[in-house]
């Protein structure tokens, strides 16, 4: 399970090539998301098995039939994951499954396992970029039992990748949810019974926004600063002219009080927000005082938590279910926290990013009230 460009295809090709060369008359298979993927990438690609096998060892490569015959009597057969019925019947000593995370369902994997029964020690090798699918989650849970997991990040193969391309990928996707999945090979899983699900958030993701009518920054402040301190949640959100709510930015992090106040004011100015909303349960007047030291003119609204975190979050989760909220771009760390937040609260640590999100969307979803405005004459 590794990032793009790490060398997954070469790993699968080298493993299968070694097996069929050192074992006579064995039956092996390559299964990819489509037949074209198996042929063009796993066999004929720059890192495919024809590059890993010595040319003198290949007796015949039948491109139309998808079969490689070797001089020692071994054979490699290609299959497509989108045609699982073709795996009924064939038996194998060894199988290479490529990009399992991109397979359409698990039928092909199940049929393959039924046929993985030749020899004394049949094995399947999976090379994939991690995606949050049922099949990968199942295999991930079985690690250290009957599954051996190897992980790798794209950056680990920097010597064999274009520096220009690697720099572009890192700058564009580094730290984002997509980058953590595709470059850092993290399997981003949801927690059972979480109030939010990744696929639901993804379905509400946009890359641009309409005209915005009201924009605020919300803070869930941490009053201490050490290695075990909570993060300070800092989230910007807005209401559009279309009536929908847009989550625009997450600048949360572990900061000293002066630093989080500065970050909040910076986001307030960058977004041209109308207001900062901040929880004052812990800091009281200190929260407003820190903000006004940085920007005396800021419009600040203190909010005090009268209910627990879950009770405050439930109405906001309902807004997502009603499809009234949109996420603008990738907000990976915030979304990770959302997808671990259950009716019993988040499982590991304080959900500070979620708290800031809840304060922001609560303020924006309330019935609009009159606000002071300045009209230029």
Work out the helix count: 13
* Distance between the ends: 63 Å
Order of helices and strands: HEHHEEEEHEHHHHEEEEHEHEHEHEEH
Q: Could you report the average pLDDT, rounded to the nearest whole number?
A: 89
Q: Brief description of this entry?
A:
By secondary structure, the protein is α/β, with parallel strands linked by helices.
Please, could you describe this protein's structure?
- With 377 residues, the protein is of the alpha/beta class.
- It is built from 13 helices and 15 strands.
- A seven-stranded mixed sheet has the order 7-13-10-9-8-11-12, sandwiched between helices. A six-stranded mixed sheet has the order 2-3-4-1-5-6, sandwiched between helices. A two-stranded antiparallel sheet has the order 14-15.
- A hairpin with a 4-residue loop joins strand 2 and strand 3.
- The longest helix is centred in the first third of the chain and has 15 residues.
- The radius of gyration is 27 Å and the shape is elongated.
- The protein starts with 7 loop residues before the first helix and ends in a 12-residue tail after the last helix.
Keyphrases for this structure?
377 residues; alpha/beta; 7-stranded mixed sheet; 6-stranded mixed sheet; 13 helices
């Amino acid at each position: 399970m590794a990032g793009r460009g790490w060398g997954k295809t070469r790993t699968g090709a080298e493993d299968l090539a070694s097996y069929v060369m050192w074992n006579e008359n064995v039956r092996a298979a390559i299964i990819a998301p489509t037949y074209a993927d198996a042929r063009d990438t796993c066999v004929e690609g720059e890192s495919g098995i024809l590059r890993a096998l010595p040319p003198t060892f290949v007796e015949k490569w039948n491109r139309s039939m998808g079969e490689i015959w070797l001089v020692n009597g071994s054979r490699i057969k290609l299959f497509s994951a989108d045609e699982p019925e073709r795996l009924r019947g064939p038996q194998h000593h060894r199988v290479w499954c490529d990009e399992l995370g991109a397979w359409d369902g698990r039928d092909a994997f199940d049929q393959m396992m039924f046929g993985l029964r030749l020899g004394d020690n049949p094995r399947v090798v999976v090379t994939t970029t991690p995606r949050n699918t049922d099949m990968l989650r199942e295999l991930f849970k079985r690690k250290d039992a009957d599954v051996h997991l190897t992980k790798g990040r794209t950056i680990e193969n920097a010597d064999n990748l274009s520096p220009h391309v690697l720099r572009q990928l890192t700058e564009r996707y580094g730290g984002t949810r997509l980058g953590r999945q595709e470059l850092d090979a993290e399997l981003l899983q949801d927690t059972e019974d979480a109030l939010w699900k990744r696929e639901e958030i993804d379905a509400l993701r946009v890359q641009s926004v309409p005209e915005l009518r009201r924009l605020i920054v919300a803070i869930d402040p941490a009053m201490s600063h050490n290695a075990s301190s909570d993060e300070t949640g800092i989230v910007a959100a807005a209401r559009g002219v279309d009536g929908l709510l847009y989550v625009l930015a997450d600048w949360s992090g572990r900061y000293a009080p002066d630093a989080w106040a500065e970050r909040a004011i910076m986001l307030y100015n960058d977004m041209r927000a109308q207001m900062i909303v901040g929880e004052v349960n812990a800091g009281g007047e200190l929260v407003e005082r820190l903000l006004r030291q940085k920007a005396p003119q800021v419009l600040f609204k203190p909010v005090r938590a009268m209910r627990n975190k879950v009770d405050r979050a439930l109405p906001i989760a309902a807004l997502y279910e009603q499809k009234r909220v949109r996420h603008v771009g990738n907000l990976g760390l915030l979304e990770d926290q959302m997808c671990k937040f259950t009716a019993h609260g988040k499982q590991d640590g304080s959900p500070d990013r979620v708290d800031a999100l809840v304060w922001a969307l609560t303020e924006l979803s309330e019935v609009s009230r009159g606000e002071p405005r300045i009209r230029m004459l």
